[in-house]
Amino acid sequence: MASPAVADQRDEKLPTLFSKLASSTDLSVANKLASDIWSVWLHHDDAEVARFMTIGISAMNQRNLEVAYNAFDHVVGMAPDFAEGWNKRATVNFMLDRVDASMRDIERTLALEPRHFGALSGMGLIFDTIGNPGAAADAWEKALGVHPHIQGARKRIKDLRRQQRGRPI
Q1: Per residue in 44-57, pLDDT tens?
Q2: Which of 144, 86, 92, 94 is nearest to 120 (CA)?
Q3: pTM of this structure
Q4: What pLDDT sits at residue 166?
Q5: How far apart are CA 110 and CA 120, in angstroms?
Q6: How is the chain classified by DSSP, letter by letter?
Q7: What does the CA dihedral 79, 80, 81, 84 come to, rounded to 10 degrees?
């Protein structure tokens, strides 16, 4: 039986955090706000979901990707409305060169949490990987629309737009 996510992308703190992030001009403040958003996204009140998230993150950090995938697969099975479970599985799929599966998981993440700048950045990486610089730049621009201080994003967009126009980077 799927359990409801009590925190995650529906947390009442998120609108304020996103608003402050979008208007922040101080990089250290923006980084703290982004970290706070990630903390909310990662939280799930169901102990079993939280346990599998911990297992998956630990395995992913140790590059034990099949274990990580299986853990996140359990998460999305138990809590299909938990955006961060889908995002983590998307990340592992990308690391395993399962680009199509990663994109499907990103699309699910964004359907649940359209402001997910991590998923939007991941989408940019996928489009870049498959040789679609225009779509990659568009995804990065959407990510910057939510989190204007993503490190390296502005330069990457500039490079992708040049590539899109057929000019060397």
Answers
A1: 999 999 999 999 99
A2: 144
A3: 0.91
A4: 84
A5: 8
A6: -PPPPSSGGG-TTHHHHHHHHHH---HHHHHHHHHHHHHHHH--S-HHHHHHHHHHHHHHHTT-HHHHHHHHHHHHHH-TT-HHHHHHHHHHHHHTT-HHHHHHHHHHHHHH-TT-HHHHHHHHHHHHHTT-HHHHHHHHHHHHHH-TT-TTHHHHHHHHHHHHTT---
A7: 80
